[in-house]
Structure formats: structure tokens, C-alpha cells
């Protein structure tokens, strides 16, 4: 946290960059600032960060004249990529969500599904779970668990006239491909966000 301060309206890009510059001066940090991280690709952020970079560069306070000054938020980048992957199979994901809702609607359905999985000798110990649609990592975990039970979903559709949401064989291939991509993002996010120590050095490795 750098500072709490009043910025007079309108909150123009120049006003914001001046407020940040003033706070840096107050804390004697202008000679110590290396980069700033932006949480999204908002155009106003680009403008005030450029203003701040130019101001500090003119005073020769930035390494490499500010070429490394602005760093995009890694979590935001991962989220954008993951959402693109998820959007590419949104129809299949809808069917999987509805399938899980159907199974979890009553204990008897959960029991029937478990019996089907047992008869099919599905070795998975994963539990079917619904995702939080705004959190891509939970969608990945939902798809990953559902993949293990793809045969069980098909069998359930045959045995239960009330269920007709089972993904097709082609749908499951799409899910497998999506999970392959999402795993790379999930592992990358975990390596950064679950680390108990500073991870800025990874940026340069």
C-alpha cells in the first residue's frame, strides 16, 4: 500500500500519475522504483503509467529508461487466456454443469451414479463438483473430474429417461483438449500464487 490520498475530480490520467509521483516523492522512493503492475488492460492505466514513466525517465530514475517499467498482472493474463479456452467449448461445459446438477439433485441419483461408476470399474477417486463460473480454475477442476466419469454419464443417459445431457464422444475430445491447455495455466498459476516466497525472480528466468 503506497498511500491514501484525495484526488480531485475529474480523475484524469495526468492527475493520477501526479498523485502517484507525489506519493513516491513523499516516501523517497523515486530512485527505488523498478516496475509497476497493472491489474488489467484499461486504456487509462496505460496513459497514466506512461506519464509516470516519462516523468521518472526524465530524471534518470528508471532502469533501461523505463523499458521494463510496466508489467501486466500475471493472474489477469492467465484469466484472459483461460476464459478464451473455456469459451471455445461453452456448449459442452453447459451440458456437464447440467449433468452434475442432475446427479447432485438427490441422494438417490448420486447413489445410482456411484453404482454405475463401480460397475464400469472407473478407478477415479475424484468427486464431481460444480464450478464457480467467474473462477476459471474451478471450471478446470470440474472438467477434470467429469472426464474420469465420461462412460458413467453415457450409461446414466441410457438407464435414466429423465437424463439427456450426456456429452458425446466428440464433446469429450474437446474437453480433453481444453483441459490440456488449462492444466498449463493452472500449474503456472499455482507455481506463482501458492509460493510462500517472493516470485519476482521468475519474471527474469
UniProtKB/TrEMBL annotation:
Keywords: Metal-binding, Nucleus, Zinc, Zinc-finger
UniProt-recorded Gene Ontology molecular function terms: zinc ion binding
GO CC terms, sorted: nucleus
Entry keyword rRNA-binding: no
Zinc in keyword set: yes
Transmembrane residue ranges: none
InterPro entries for this protein: RNaseH-like_sf (IPR012337), ZnF_BED_domain_contain (IPR052035)
Main localisation: nucleus
Localisation per UniProt entry: Nucleus
PANTHER family named in the record: ZINC FINGER BED DOMAIN-CONTAINING PROTEIN 39 (PTHR46481:SF10), ZINC FINGER BED DOMAIN-CONTAINING PROTEIN 4 (PTHR46481)
Protein name: hAT-like transposase RNase-H fold domain-containing protein
Native species: Arundo donax (Giant reed)
